[in-house]
């Protein structure tokens, strides 16, 4: 089968299309014929060897995919060849990939393979932040950084469905319309404007109740200045570099809360995952959540796809089609 592989860590061009043996499912696993693999910003860290999970060289990137079950390993119940699924795992940039049965999400008919590949990591990350780490209530105001990106587009819609007012940030004016289309009431270009000052202006000095921040260094500390009293910042990434160390006494002045989120914490909790998946599918069914596949690339073009997501020019989710 064909797969993307890198033999050394580094820039996008370390990734190459190679021919490798089809993997055999081990106990508790299924094999998927991958129809679309999701690209996550974290894949670029994995490729560089700076992600939480380190590559075992030569390695294949890819943490999520959608497709059809092709073979079921020993001890797997309730999953059969031919089922349409999405799943979270490893080595998904390939024609076939193995996934643990407990990381499989059966796909409803109304979700295409490309949407399915876009679903697990970004939608569930957004849903858990808004409804588990935070308890969003109608009338709250949320600031979503990198609003036109994969997580951002979904997070704005989930927050909106929960009755929030949404302010998004983007790094170029070309992304403003798309952010508005997917749920932003207001959009700030945070490259040309001081977002904290803009938020204070937009909210009449009140500030925001929740900040979703995966940018890090350029936004984290500054965000505290535009948080409302009892406001909450969730740090869930570092696309712009790790934030500086926080002086926790800064939290006293407005009774602020800062928390972190990583999807692994939720993915080991079966009931929590079921709840997040069901609620998110319901939002899609009701037309309140639309998954935006911004661009799909043939599998061989994984380097171009990584360059695109790193360029800050992409919108929505990028997928690879083997
Ligand atoms: N904790 C978790 O479990 C979890 C799960 C999924 C994703 N994440 C994190 O969430 C963020 C979004 O992930 P995604 O896969 O949906 O990617 P994405 O948002 O589609 O793409 C990354 C975005 O980050 C923004 N960005 C800000 N500073 C940047 C920089 N210096 N270089 C490149 N991009 C920069 C860009 O938007 P603007 O330029 O418009 O700001 C860019 O479009 C990432 O930081 C990712 O690591 C975390």
Task: Give the helix/strand layout.
Blueprint: E1 2-6, E2 15-19, E3 29-39, H1 41-48, E4 64-72, E5 84-88, E6 96-100, E7 104-106, H2 113-118, H3 120-133, E8 141-144, H4 150-161, E9 165-170, H5 176-181, E10 186-189, H6 195-202, E11 208-213, H7 220-224, E12 227-235, E13 257-260, H8 263-267, H9 270-285, E14 293-298, H10 302-310, E15 317-321
Helix pairs in contact: 3-4, 3-9
Bound molecules: NADP nicotinamide-adenine-dinucleotide phosphate (NAP).
Residues 40-42, 121-122, 125, 146, 148-152, 170-171, 175, 214-215, 236-237, 239-240, 261-263, 309-310, 312, 314 line the site of NADP nicotinamide-adenine-dinucleotide phosphate.
What key attributes describe this structure?
322 residues, alpha/beta, Quinone Oxidoreductase, Chain A, domain 1, Rossmann fold, 7-stranded mixed β-sheet, 6-stranded parallel β-sheet, binds NADP nicotinamide-adenine-dinucleotide phosphate
Task: Tell me about this structure.
The protein has 322 residues and is an alpha/beta fold. The chain has two domains: 2-119 and 291-321, Quinone Oxidoreductase, Chain A, domain 1 (Alpha-Beta Complex); 122-264, Rossmann fold. It is 28% helix and 27% strand. It has ten helices and 15 strands. The protein has helices at residues 41-48, 113-118, 120-133, 150-161, 176-181, 195-202, 220-224, 263-267, 270-285, 302-310, and strands at residues 2-6, 15-19, 29-39, 64-72, 84-88, 96-100, 104-106, 141-144, 165-170, 186-189, 208-213, 227-235, 257-260, 293-298, 317-321. The strands form three sheets. Strands 3, 4, 5, 6, 7, 14 and 15 form a seven-stranded mixed sheet that branches. Strands 10-9-8-11-12-13 form a six-stranded parallel sheet, with helices on both faces. Strands 1-2 form a two-stranded antiparallel sheet. Strand 1 (2-6) and strand 2 (15-19) form a beta hairpin. Helix 3 (120-133) packs across helix 4 (150-161) and helix 3 (120-133) crosses helix 9 (270-285). The radius of gyration is 20 Å and the shape is globular.
């Amino acid at each position: 089968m064909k797969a993307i592989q890198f033999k050394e860590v580094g820039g996008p061009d370390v990734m190459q299309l190679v021919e490798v043996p089809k993997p055999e499912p081990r106990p508790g696993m299924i094999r998927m014929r991958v129809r679309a693999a999701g690209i996550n910003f974290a894949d670029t860290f994995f490729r560089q060897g700076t992600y939480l999970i380190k590559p075992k060289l030569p390695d294949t990137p890819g943490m999520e995919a959608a497709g059809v079950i092709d073979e079921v390993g020993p001890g797997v119940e309730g999953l059969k060849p031919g089922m349409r699924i999405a799943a979270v795992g490893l080595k998904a940039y390939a024609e076939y990939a193995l996934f643990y049965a407990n990381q499989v999400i059966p796909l409803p008919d109304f979700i295409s393979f490309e949407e399915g590949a876009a679903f697990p990591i970004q939608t569930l990350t957004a849903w858990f932040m808004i409804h588990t780490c935070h308890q969003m209530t109608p009338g709250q105001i949320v600031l979503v950084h990198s609003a036109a990106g994969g997580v951002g587009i979904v997070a704005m819609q989930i927050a909106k469905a929960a009755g929030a007012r949404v302010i998004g940030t983007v790094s170029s004016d070309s992304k403003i319309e798309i952010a508005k289309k997917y749920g932003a009431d207001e959009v700030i270009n945070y490259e040309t404007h001081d977002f904290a000052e803009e938020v204070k202006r937009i909210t009449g000095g009140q500030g925001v109740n929740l900040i979703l921040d995966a940018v890090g260094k350029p936004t984290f500390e500054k965000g505290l200045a535009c948080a409302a009293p009892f406001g909450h910042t969730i740090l869930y990434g570092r696309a712009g570099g790790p934030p500086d160390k926080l002086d926790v006494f800064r939290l006293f002045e407005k009774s602020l809360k800062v928390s972190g989120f990583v999807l692994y914490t939720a993915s080991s909790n079966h009931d929590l995952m079921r709840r997040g998946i069901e609620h998110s599918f319901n939002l899609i069914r009701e037309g309140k959540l639309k998954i935006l596949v911004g661009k799909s690339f043939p599998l061989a073009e994984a380097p171009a796809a990584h360059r695109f997501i790193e360029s800050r020019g992409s919108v929505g989710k990028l997928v690879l089609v083997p």
